[in-house]
Amino acid sequence: MDNSGDLSRAKSIYVQGSWAEHGTDAATVGVTLPWKEWKADLWGGQVRGHWDLYVSRLSFDGRRSYDSTWMFGVKPVWRWRPDAGRSPWFAEAGVGLTYMTDRYITVHKEFSTSFNFATHLGVGYSFGEQRQHEVQLRVEHVSNAGIKEPNPGENFVQIRYGYHF
Length: 165
Prior knowledge:
Elements: E1 12-20, E2 25-42, E3 45-59, E4 68-81, E5 89-100, E6 115-127, E7 133-143, E8 154-164
Antiparallel strand pairs: 1-2, 1-8, 2-3, 3-4, 4-5, 5-6, 6-7, 7-8
């Protein structure tokens, strides 16, 4: 742990709720695994990285016999903290891969692939005696990046609670 009491280099577990247009929602559980010694100074702050591994249950109004799917994902994430990394506030971005057990086919959208990409931007706040708790507000886009049509993509608003240990 560094001088600020920040646990940003510690593993974490989290729960997350996500909502998209037309009634799609998701419940997610995941873990983050830090890149141990990597860090960089940027714009008066500090950037660190971690891996985000998760599983989500997406529920939606389906056009087929199913109305939900499981999504598994892995994503490298870069997190920037102002004030040379001492601030409890942070911003982050990530881009990674996902796999859905059933293709995402709703009344309003149809994905052509089970493998997709997920990108997100988020802001968050760490709290607790050693900043072991955190909350985040994120926006995530999931699509196949034009590999195959149709590719309507889906945008999610996400709220996350994480605990570092």
